[in-house]
Amino acid sequence: MKPKVAFICVHNSCRSQMAEALGRLFASDVFDSYSAGTETKPQINQDAVRIIKDMYEVDMNEEHTSKLLTDIPEVDIVVKMGCNVVCPFLPAKHTEDWGLEDPTGKGYEEFIKIAKTIEEKIKDLSKRIKNNEINLKE
Fold this sequence. Notes:
Rossmann fold; 4 helices; 4-stranded parallel beta sheet; globular; alpha/beta; 4 strands
């Protein structure tokens, strides 16, 4: 069984959505990706959508919506995107915080930087899961 990974932040409209999209793109053979937050936005951040479409040819508008923590299944791994406020809590066997700054309202370059960082971190997480570096045993 593939582990389930939840990417969480408060609004579930930008970084966590990008992480879910890139998790599906680069690591779907290793884990299932979900994203959620404690509050939702009527639509996901369109700058994030544009960047992911430009860089990876993935259209997040097609299958992504802003979701609450209660909207996703129970997960094995929680990745906090980096919240300056209190990050949402979700029970999991492993939790880590990527400490990413929210690019919302910043320029295109900032979004590209965040997307590339998320891509690297997704690949690293995938590798650690494959190598059993993350303990997912009960």
